[in-house]
Amino acid sequence: MKKITLLLFLFVFQHITYSQVISDKVSVEFKNANLQTVIQNIEQSSYFKFYFDEKWFETDSTIISKQFKEVRIAEVLDEVLQNTSFNFYISGNKIILTNNSVIYNQLPDDYFGIPLEKDENGVAIAPVFYQQYDSLKRTNTRNPNKNTKEIIAIGKEVKNQKKETYTLSGYVRGGKNKEVLSNILVKIAGTKFATTTDKNGYYKLQVPPGMSMVETETFSYDKVTKKIMVYNDGTLNFTLIDNVNQLDEVLVKTNKNKNAKAAITGVTTIDTEGIKNVPLVLGERDILKVALTLPGIKTAGEGSSGYNVRGGKEDQNLFLLDHAVLYNPSHFFGFFTALNPYTTKKVDIYKGSIPAEFGGRLSSVFDITSKTGNFDKFQGEGGIGPATSNLMISTPIIKGKSSLIIGGRASYSDWILKSLDDEKLKNSQASFYDLIIRYNHKINANNDIESTLYYSKDKFSVSSDSLYKYSNRLATLKWNHSFNEKNKGSLIFTNSEYKFNIDYQTEGMNSFDFGYKINETQASVKMAYLFNEKHKFSYGISSKLYAIDPGYLNPKNPESTLIPIDVEKEKGLESAVYIGDNFKINDKLLLDLGLRYSSFAALGKSTQRIYEQNLPISDATVIETKTYANNEIIKKYGGFEPRIAVRYFLTADFSVRASYDKTYQYIHLLSNNTTQSPTDIWKLSDLNVKPESAQQFSLGFYKNLKNDELELSLEGYYKNSKNILDYKVGADLLLNENIETELLQGQGKAYGIEVLLKKQEGRLNGWLGYTYSRSLIKLNSQFNEEKVNDGKYFASNFDKPHDFSAVLNYRFTKRYSFSSNFIYQTGRPITYPIGKYDYGNAQYTVYSDRNKFRIPDYYRLDIGINIEGNHKIKKLAHSFWNISVYNVLGRNNPYSVFFVTDKGQIKAYKTSIFAIPIPSITYNFKF
């Protein structure tokens, strides 16, 4: 009996002692510890034992710094596991961790068919159970006959969750370079839930809880299907594989997401992979030349380096290469674009509604994006043509984390000049090269950096005494950071420089060296905030510093009669802040609202003339010369730039869009030529030169036909401008220290209608485009010397009312296709001599009003045959041949018309660039 009593006493004592020792409170401290270390520390400082799978922690990057003193273990775990996918279940001193799901100690009410309890909003409250989906068919996208058991858990389950849908988001990448992919359809199979990726490859999709199949759809990449178990909001990224059996049928495409859903008007995306079939001069694959076949985008003439968008001047277009300004996007007098086609991914052209993040130009933005290098393996691509050769190589630096892509291009076109009949041209030379390097590095899941270096150089000599050289240089550095699923941002630094030089050599003493340079440095912050399904905000701030060397002339011979000239340098600071909201009111109505405020300050060191008011600006009206110290503000300008766009669906495939934009431009291109020239100079606004401004109204209708096989768009616009720069007759622009005495500033207006019909699928694909537009300018003043054409509106140098283009491709088989390209344009305006008179023993010519007449109309037909290599996956290199004929009709299109007085008679002459058919053959390869 005593033994039994003693044993009973020992059992009760041990139980009481054990109960007293076991406490649900712990005291622990963590400093920059990972989750596994946190769990180990809790085990060491308490009697709790954790059970989990160590593999779960391999991908978890949570870092914890916390201190707890006598805090209940449940509260400690709630806090340290708050931002993870882990849940926990406590049973005595045992703690079981689960990934995503919750352990329930009782079944839900409806587990045996009893209706669920609902909350105050009528939403059923229920956990997610795997056994509900045991009968779900398991498939594999690469091999439908092969089963897969992989189920991806999304989000962290929370007890008593009350949502009918959760948010699934992520990025879609693809191709050999693992680049972000836009316009990829992401959907939940068998449901109405679907969306498309934006320009950054990002998607956001509402999904139901429980098991689902999420799929991607696109023509260019294999379909991917993933089985997901949705517990809560979460992320899921996709990596797509090229569909090697799908050839490029869509040559140029308007961004599908923007065309069908977005509010902005007048935006077009051109993909380099889709333009290889378009026949162009000398077989060069040229993304910007293809842009000229689209409505609203023109050039003053064949071989012109400038672009005129919706009636705007050449300097009113903002060319951005990976966020940095590219001042001269042309090579070889404008025949080629200064972009390597094998390193360029795409260009987004905004010619209607310009997003609030862009500014500084009146007419358009050409946002050019380079390709991202391959993170996994070495690859390359190139082309050999009659005038140029290209090569691009891509390689991982740290496999899976960083990549490098290098592209180079060079010309060997001197043989073309030497083969011409003109002896003067035989002694000429013309060549160019460009180099681009892009580096991408993934730091972690929330941070990555990208950097681009670019350099191009041209040199040409049309005669034996002068050598012209010009170059572009730019550098960008961008840091992308994801704060969370809703907040993302980028910090961007860029630098751009453009300069030209003329080396004049003569047998006499008057040889000289003449040059010009512009440099700009910019820093900007761009943010994106997904507030909710209705509001997507973007906002940011930027500032750039201009430094311009307007020109210098240095005689090479000390005994030269030439006087050295060094025009005073210019400096200015342009800044802006913006905010935008993509506001989805309902499924039919979408608003894109933007507000941008820009400012500009002209800075010293500088000497500025002050002219007498109410008198023409000339040397005779100067009343004061004022000197400004270094960085002293000379003059400040600024203003608000509202951007408003709206889209409304009339039917499921028929939408109407309208927009209003206001823009300011603080920098101007000065040129005596009808078309842009490499020796044109940029001028900043200052005390006597005002910034330009414009307002544009756009209205468009967009209709998809034959199950989206055809896309039809009709857009109209009206634009009025102020302080548009022009020049007095006989203006002297180069090395002019008082350039404002040669300038005129007036009003401009442009309007037009653009029609585009595209067929993106089938054997026959391509597009037809037509534009009727006018571009007019008015230079009026109370003084006759500052008035042109009696102060009335007259046609600008690039006014071409009618513009028609047809780009068609017919595919005979998967490897053989035929392409054609036809362009018709009204001849550009010109000023003709209409008479002559004698005065003081001299004869003078009388000219018509400025731009009253026109040169003959322009039309051209190009054809090409395209031959694909076989499409075997395991192959050393994939090839593509292009055999084309440029100007197959041999049309002698006039480039310019000029007049010469010969023996008392005025004779008219015209020049043409390509007056005969130009055949070419180009070999492209990819490995």
How would you sum up this structure, described in words?
The chain folds into 3 domains: 83 residues, Phage tail protein beta-alpha-beta fold (3-Layer(bab) Sandwich); 111 residues, Immunoglobulin-like (Sandwich); 671 residues, Maltoporin, Chain A (Beta Barrel). Helix content is 6%, strand content 52%. The chain is built from 7 helices and 58 strands. The strands form 13 sheets. The protein has a 22-stranded antiparallel barrel. A 5-stranded mixed beta sheet has the order 6-13-12-9-10, with no helix packed on it. The N terminus is likely disordered.
Mean pLDDT across residues: 82
Separation, N- and C-terminal Cα atoms:
92 Å
What summary fits the major beta sheet? 22 strands, antiparallel, barrel
Poorly predicted sequence stretches spanning 5 or more consecutive residues: 1-21, 130-148, 244-260
Structural class: mainly beta
Q: Considering the protein shown, what is the CATH homologous superfamily of the largest domain?
A: TonB-dependent receptor, beta-barrel domain
What's the CATH C level of the largest domain?
Mainly Beta
CATH topology of the largest domain: Maltoporin, Chain A
CATH architecture of the largest domain: Beta Barrel
Anisotropy-based shape: globular
Strand residue content: over 45%
The rounded Rg comes to 34 Å
The helicity comes to: under 10%
